[in-house]
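@channel sequence for tomorrow's demo:
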Amino acid sequence: MQSYHSSTHRVVIPCPYCPEALSQVRNWKRHILKIHSNRIAQQSNKYDDVYIDNANYSISNELDTGFDSQGIDCENYAVNDKNPFKTNSVHPDSEFINDLNHENKEQLNNVEERLRLNILRLIINLKSNNATETCIDICSKDLLDVLSEYKEVNTEVYFNNIRKTTATNAGRQKFISDHINVIQPKSIILGYSTIEQLETDGLSIIIDQKAYVFQGSLFLVCGDLLGLAQIHGFKCAFRQGWKPLFYCDVNRDGLRRINKGSDCQLRTLDKYEKNYMAIEFATGLEKTKLQKKFGIISYSPLRKIRNFDIFQQTAIDIMHVLLEGICQRELKLLFKQIHHEKFATLVSLSTMIRSFQYGSSESSPSNKFNLLSEENEVKFRLSASEMFTLIKYIPLVFYQARLLQSICTSSYWLSFLQLREIVSISFASEIDTTTIKQLEKLVTRYLITFDNAYGYVQRLPKHHLLVHLGDQMDRFGPLRFTSCMIFEKKHSFFKKMKYRNFRNIAVTLARRRQHYIAAQMYTSNNTSTSSFLYSGHKIQKVKELHSSAATQHHLLDSKRTLYETRQVTLFGITYAVGDVVLINDYIFPIDRVFGKILIVIVQDKVILLRLQLLQVISFNQQLCIYELCLLDCSVTKNIYDLKHIWPMRVLKISESLFVSLFPYGRTNLISIE
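structure tokens (generated this afternoon):
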């Protein structure tokens, strides 16, 4: 039996000495030791010797299977094969701690409390949302073994009493509530009252001693697939669920056959309401069948918000779908195919990826990156940002290792290139109607190519979500702005703190961080500041230039001090000497012009880039990368005039210069035309 830990379900454990109720066994133990230690010491004085039955320990050990091993101290076990009864002298407090940690079965002050403790432990370990008949059966069955160690209690009588008590639904519910209060999933607190006020009267906010009233409503909900499904009350079973995706009214077999968004039948609010009402009025086995059929467990709390469509206003997160889902599957199949055809071994592929020279500011695979073969599958571990970098540079990694010539004409390489272009468009900051059309065509061609290369059985449920990205981009704009990636990146520091910690330090740090940010919003004079969200540009070491350099651009003033630097960061985007930028006056030009940064000139709020022009030789269809050559002319460009804001890294391989326009809201792959 496995222990059950969830942020959306909890159990409430009453204190046996006071009305206090705790939400965790650990907190319950601390409360009793801190508040009621005197009572424990007084009552435990009756027992000078503690007896442990070796046979009973084996039974209790089976019951404790799956409980948190961090709370177990093997040194405290007093078990002797030759002497099954052994005497221990322990402190009263440590005796109670050991019992609550489910270690040695020591004798407490009251037999009924021991029974109650075991019932609590058994129900806490159940991996289910509610206490059902299975819960009672398990409790009753295990209690027969547990009660065998209590010589003062008539086991058969106690079991018969439990069986009679739980014979009816009302008795069953009363039995559970008497021993432990198994709570329904906690409500999702989204500030319904605040949203309702925002929709009706509006929210009043004081800025610089002036009152402003803002009106609106909840526009969009972003999150990972499991979180969204759980919030909306749908089954969280993407692999085994009959309808894996909560906003698609298609079963799991049909999802693998759909290549276009127009071919997919979506859920509607009207049908959702009818399905939920059918489940609500059903009972017993019929209710379970309907829940499985419709994939609905409970009513979505977001339906309390007026005019909010839980299907149309819930976004697909491209980080979880692409970087942590489809890209993982694609690369595993790609590496496996290359290894199977003996073009390269997994060891050599790992070396290629580790030894490639990635950008200094990019999150690249670590020196410990390794491809492993387990059960005829290739396995590796990468974070979302590392996956983004690897997807970007894999063509150049293979080109540099002279591997591309062997695989460039294969269907599995074309499948990878098409997925790479989907990732590029999905993370683009600038889009238009042509971008949406290209994305929809690209998704259709990719799914067909993927099926030809690996078979449709290799598709994940997340593959189907690609057909809906075009519609989401049309409704909400660039997909990168509805992604969780930037939020999870900012919270990564706190998320790491939850591992190997016995205290919930992540919550404490997050709360103190919020207090710190709130303090930054006001000055010592209790006036609001304008820099708490953005502290300003970051400029690396500078050196002063002669005033004659001001004649290079009309924005520069020869009477003011002029500086030169090698790196500047604007709104989180770093521009450094050696990087390449797209300098056209249009976002999506036909003839693209690139410039390599030579120096960065700064004067007050003016930031200029001195650029060496690069001529496009060709667009390599096998790499999806531009091949360039340097020109002997240079220009000066205002950094705020850049239409495509993302800098690129130029790579020199075999006397050729390559630049990857990634991410970008266009694709030049001929295969999708």
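heads up for whoever presents: The chain has 24 helices and 18 strands.
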